[in-house]
Write a structure and sequence with these properties.
Low-confidence stretches: none
Shape: globular
Number of domains: 1
Strand order of the largest sheet: 4-3-2-1-11-10-9-8-7
Mean pLDDT: 90
Largest sheet: 9 strands, antiparallel
Radius of gyration: 14 Å
Helix content: 10-25%
Distance between the termini: 18 Å
């Protein structure tokens, strides 16, 4: 596993516990509907410990988080809130604490697997590599 393991483009394939999770983090209902089974394409550019993590939503909206492992960075949540976080690398997983949830991302069998936990609800999103 090289440190370039994350670089690539991934398309949403499936998720678990979406509704419970987004209610827990207080996402407004219009955003909940918008995000359900949303064919989000996640694009990861990795240069050593520097990452640019972009999510392309249908309809042209994008969210980009740029961070360096181990350094505090300005980030944005699913709901568009700005916050500061220090992203870590633990056992090959990217780990970050968002304001109201704990997030990890890993590459598992060529797929991008993201897990977010809020007050005991675990939301898991799987995306398949498209390039």
């Amino acid at each position: 596993r090289g440190n370039m393991a994350f670089a690539g483009k991934y398309e949403f394939e499936g998720d678990e516990n979406y509704d419970d999770f987004v209610k827990k983090i207080g996402l407004p209902s219009d955003k909940i509907e918008m995000g359900r089974n949303c064919k989000i394409v996640t694009e990861v550019v990795q240069n050593g410990n520097d990452f640019t993590w972009t999510q392309h939503f249908p309809g042209g909206r994008t969210t980009t988080n740029t961070f360096i492992i181990g350094k505090e960075a300005d980030m944005e949540t699913m709901g568009g809130k700005k916050f500061k976080a220090t992203v870590k690398m633990e056992d090959g997983k990217i780990v970050a604490d968002f304001p109201n949830y704990h997030h990890t991302a890993e590459i598992c069998g060529g797929k991008l697997v993201e897990t977010s936990t809020a007050s005991g609800v675990v939301y898991k999103r799987t995306s398949k590599r498209i390039n």
